[in-house]
Amino acid sequence: MKISHRLVLAALGLVLSTAVHSSPLETLYESQDADAFFASAVPAAEAGDAEALFLLGKAHHTGQGTPRDLERAAGYYQRARQKGSARATHNLGLIALDDGHKTEAITLFQEALSAGLKLPTLRNLGRAYAPDHPSYRALLQRPVEAAGRSGDAYAEAYRLTSSVNDAFDASSQYYRAWFFARHAMPREHETFDHAALRERAVRWLRIGMDGDLAPAWTNYGVLLMEEGDFEAARPALERGAAKGVPVAHYHLSGMARNRDEALDHMERAALLGLRQAHRPAQQQLQDRYQDETDLDVLARAVERMDALREKSTETFVPRSLAQRLAWGRFVAGVAATAGVLPDRPVRLRACGLDLVQVYGDTFNLGANSAWRLVTYTRFDEATETGVTGRVDPRGCATSAGDLPPSVTTALRGGAVLALHFVNFTLPLAATVEPRRVVLSLGPVDGPRPE
Prior knowledge:
The protein is an alpha+beta fold. It is 56% helix and 10% strand.
């Protein structure tokens, strides 16, 4: 069985080593005057200066003043390391970590720590120890231990800095250790001290919560929710949601008291960038307004759907809300023309319905397809006229003569007339001729009912 979970985790990015007190050469590097820096650093490096070697490595590592070249950067770092540069050792660890070589990175970070470089080494050591999320519930001893070691590194950084963010990073990894152990297979599950793992995670979460750190409140709510204590989880998640944590909104959606509240939270999670919320947000919005008859409300729903699609760059549901809105506006527009058509007989002459013709090809129709003539005075409700027929060999739907007076009355009253087939309904357009009004098919890509 796979392990699935959603938690707020720290954004793990590149943290390069910098000097506490800048030397003249480092000040020159930081000034971004590339010509002056290289003019000073290159001869110093050739003479074996460890700082110059390190800074040249950093320039090639970051691409500052020269094209980014990790191979050259590593070469400079290695030479500086041999001369005792802890910062060079640390940055070699970063290169190894970014290449996916965690074991090598850990060794290098530990060497930098032993040389006295505590920060940012501890934070990057936390990154290196952090395990990938297990796919299955078996063999979780190592991920639990690795998450604990990652948390320990961040916790040590916190003891040096008192930064609530370091405490949060520690709590996130301690939480993961507890979570992995909790979901282990029964035999392995018994080998873990679950109470101790939980106590450690909660203790470090509380440091963030005491600092009103929204992600810490969110993760505490997730922990309580994982334990089934939804009543206690809700206020914790609400603290996170109030400060815009998307994961908090995501979980509150699942705890919502009604569908509007559920949609509101899921929509917020998606708009705040949570990828896992994009599909359910679009689906919930579609389900909520697919039967809406108020065009103003429907228009706002379409705007909200467009915002979700723009944020996700993916379309998970059909564009039926937009189609429904276009159809509703079309029907309302025709209704506004009531009384404009002259009082003349009405006939049906709608062609292009054979398979090789434009409407037949688009809607998979053809000769002998059955149709019914319907009217729409409301965009969400069709009324039968009793007029039926089949597409003739020429690809046309025609009336044998004039249509019944009731159809004429509906047309002059601002109703939309349409041909209803098994899977599609195609609106008709009225054309005034000298002796009658003729109904033919509207634009093939025009509005139509779902």
